[in-house]
Amino acid sequence: MGSIAPTLPELDASFIKVTRTTTPREVPLPGSPEELSHSHCTDHMVTVRWTSSAGWDTPEVKPFQNLSIPPTASCLHYATECFEGMKAYRGYDGKLRLFRPDCNGERLVMSSQRISLPGFKPEELKLLIAKLLQIDGPRWLPKDRPGRFLYIRPTLIGNGTQLGVQVPKEALLFIIAVPWPDPSQKIGLKLLASRPETIRAWPGGFGSAKLGANYGPSLQFHGQAQAAGFDQALWLFGPDRQITEAGASNFFLVWDNKTTGKRELVTAPLDTQIILPGITRRSVLELALSRLATKQVGGLAPVEVVERTFTMDELTQAWKEGCIVEAFVSGTAFFITPIMLIRDGDLDITLLSEGERAGYAAQIKTWLEAIMYGREEHEWAYVIEGESEKNII
């Protein structure tokens, strides 16, 4: 009789070891250099080790500290690294919430499997983050200061000792939380259209997975755009210059389609796997379908939601014909931010004047904030219970 292979332990957030810090870190003030640095993390972090021979270890919450990995680690040589971007929100009712964390868990599993890292049950990520925030939430997002958030970064890396092109035999999942500047202070973005030699993603590649390898190669042109006075790159693809993403955000356009006679909310499709399936993108589309598709809201005409390939030439022609209503980006970092200007070569396409309000973006942002901060009860909000007061000093 053949032997049955043993079942390796799965990731399980119900068994977790907690070691509390004895030296709490200083909580930075809003707008301070520490907050603007994007690097001043909270008191604790989550770590979980995985090996191909023993499966997932017991998760740990422990004081924030640097990692120790071997110089031969797979993530350093073969880009076996993926991550998520999330936020924890202190509601106006005093409760702490995550926004659609199950979607982030599903996407992290998809990304990890794309680069041969271990999978896990997506809901376990939510529970691990909740445990971290039960400990750090009361001090870093105090109940008497509602309307604030922390940026959450779950990351999975191949960190074994084996050098060579092979599937990683060891991995580390870690979760950190960082105070983050409020993106709502940004009135509008200025984008610089990418050139043919600066391609961010392509069909059959890995543009749809949230991998470090997606971002590193894009930073050179991103830096050039910022040096020229722009906020982000507008990434174009192919000889027809398809509009894909804006920086690390999904791109939306509201225009009046002269062919159909309808007002449309347009964004690039997911089927080519060139763009990231953003959680905020998905939420924008679902809110637009349920709340903006059939009736006028606050003076905003109904829109038809369209996911299709569209090009820079189409956008330029629509702008020249006065058919563009507004454009905006969506994502965890920039949230919902209108686009003020796009420069394509020698042409400046002005979409928003100083002091002008982008109506659809503002309305969708208001709906999302109501869910995130507890002004509206909604299934997308996950309330974190059981916050600890032990580390408040």
From TrEMBL:
UniProt keywords, alphabetically: Amino-acid biosynthesis, Aminotransferase, Branched-chain amino acid biosynthesis, Pyridoxal phosphate, Transferase
Cofactor requirement: pyridoxal 5'-phosphate
PTM-bearing positions, type N6-(pyridoxal phosphate)lysine: K210
Coiled coil residues, start to end: none
InterPro entries the UniProt entry points to: Aminotrans_IV, Aminotrans_IV_CS, Aminotransferase-like, B_amino_transII, BCAT-like_C, BCAT-like_N, BCAT_family
Entry keyword annotation includes Glycoprotein: no
Catalytic activity: L-isoleucine + 2-oxoglutarate = (S)-3-methyl-2-oxopentanoate + L-glutamate; L-valine + 2-oxoglutarate = 3-methyl-2-oxobutanoate + L-glutamate; L-leucine + 2-oxoglutarate = 4-methyl-2-oxopentanoate + L-glutamate
Xref: CDD domains: BCAT_beta_family
Family per record: Belongs to the class-IV pyridoxal-phosphate-dependent aminotransferase family.
A Gene Ontology molecular function term of the record: L-isoleucine-2-oxoglutarate transaminase activity
Name of the protein in its database record: Branched-chain-amino-acid aminotransferase
GO-annotated biological processes: L-leucine biosynthetic process; L-valine biosynthetic process
Superkingdom per UniProt: Eukaryota
Keyword presence, Amino-acid biosynthesis: yes
Pfam families documented for this protein: Aminotran_4
Cellular component GO terms, alphabetical: mitochondrion
Assigned EC number: 2.6.1.42
